[in-house]
Specification:
By secondary structure, this protein is mainly beta. It has no helices and two strands. 0% of the residues lie in helices and 30% in strands. It has a two-stranded antiparallel sheet.
């Protein structure tokens, strides 16, 4: 006589963890800095964007 196996019950799926936005760039992945020129590092009226040093451009913490 063969014994029949019961099918395994499925576990409910766990919800995905909430993704936290980076505090430095607010989730955009870029930071804005003012442009400085000259020996005395004076600021001019321009800005430049670059990768966020905290999240490396991903936008998540």
């Amino acid at each position: 006589m063969t014994t029949e196996k019961k099918p395994q019950a499925r576990r409910p799926a766990k919800p995905a963890p909430a993704v936290q936005k980076c505090d430095t760039c607010a989730g955009s992945g870029e930071t804005v800095t003012t442009v400085r020129v000259g020996r005395k590092r004076r600021e001019i009226g321009a800005t430049q964007t670059g990768l966020c040093p905290a999240c490396l451009g991903t936008g998540t913490a």
